[in-house]
User: Which sequence fits this backbone?
């Protein structure tokens, strides 16, 4: 129970207001581990929903546009931030000598695995071209030539006769 | 779209890769390029966006098929269409 010095209801604080006792039943009756367990399940569900959305609107979308890409980044950033916060909260709970240390460690391992997957997606779709190991060097070279304006007419190829 | 509206260009990389193709592939590619010049975004040419490359570059990268497993990637800027790379899907997209 927590004592508050101000009226419980919102509105004008009256000078004669007496301290009231507020029962924060949710925070006190539910174990923090259970709260984190539920947050973990919600986050995993959201990553799964996110992956379905990314597939529909980005990976397999023939009409993908740059707003889709921005929303992809936004979705990934959100899931990454949420996952990192979840890991922090699990680690803090363990540091408070919570009895379920092994379970907490296992949750953190799974959160980290999922975070790694999300980071890889972010990097593969929104990182630097030159850092992508699976994109051929010839494509990277061509892009750099294009960026430097080092292009020539295609006509020479068209006008040549096949040997 | 009229043919003369577009300026077709290529990179040196594209030229180098083109020169490594077999004469049969080069011949097919030339034939395809002539059709391409008439209608650069024709569905008949199998023009499609490469989503991941477009995302990485923050500009649209498209491709056309010369034959089943021979593709040309290209970028459009204003009236310029620049051929970037040519090869199998694996060689071009990774």
Assistant:
């Amino acid at each position: 129970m927590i004592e508050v010095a101000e009226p419980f209801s919102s509105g004008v604080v009256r000078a004669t207001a007496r301290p009231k006792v507020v029962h924060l039943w949710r925070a006190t009756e539910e174990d923090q581990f259970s709260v984190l367990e539920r947050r973990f399940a919600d986050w995993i569900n959201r990553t799964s929903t996110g992956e379905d959305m990314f597939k529909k609107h980005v990976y397999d979308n023939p009409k993908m546009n740059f707003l889709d890409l921005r929303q992809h980044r936004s979705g990934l950033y959100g899931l990454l931030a949420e996952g990192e916060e979840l890991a922090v909260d699990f680690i803090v709970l363990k540091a408070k000598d919570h009895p379920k240390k092994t379970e907490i460690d296992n949750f953190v391992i799974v959160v980290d695995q999922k975070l790694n997957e999300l980071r890889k997606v972010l990097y593969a779709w929104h990182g630097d071209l030159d850092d992508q190991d699976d994109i051929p060097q010839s494509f990277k070279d061509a892009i750099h030539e294009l960026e430097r304006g080092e292009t020539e007419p295609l006509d020479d190829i068209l006008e040549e006769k096949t040997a | 779209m009229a043919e003369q509206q577009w300026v077709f260009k290529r990179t040196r990389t594209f030229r180098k890769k083109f020169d490594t193709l077999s004469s049969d592939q080069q011949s097919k590619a030339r034939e395809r390029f002539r059709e391409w010049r008439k209608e650069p975004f024709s569905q008949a040419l199998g023009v499609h966006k490469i989503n991941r490359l477009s995302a990485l570059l923050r500009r649209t990268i498209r491709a056309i098929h010369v034959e089943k497993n021979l593709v040309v990637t290209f970028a459009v800027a204003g009236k310029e269409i620049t051929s970037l790379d040519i090869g199998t899907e694996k060689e071009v997209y990774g």
Remarks:
- The mean pLDDT of chain B is 91.
- The longest strand of chain B covers residues 70-77.
- The CA atoms of residues 27 and 66 of chain B lie 10 Å apart.
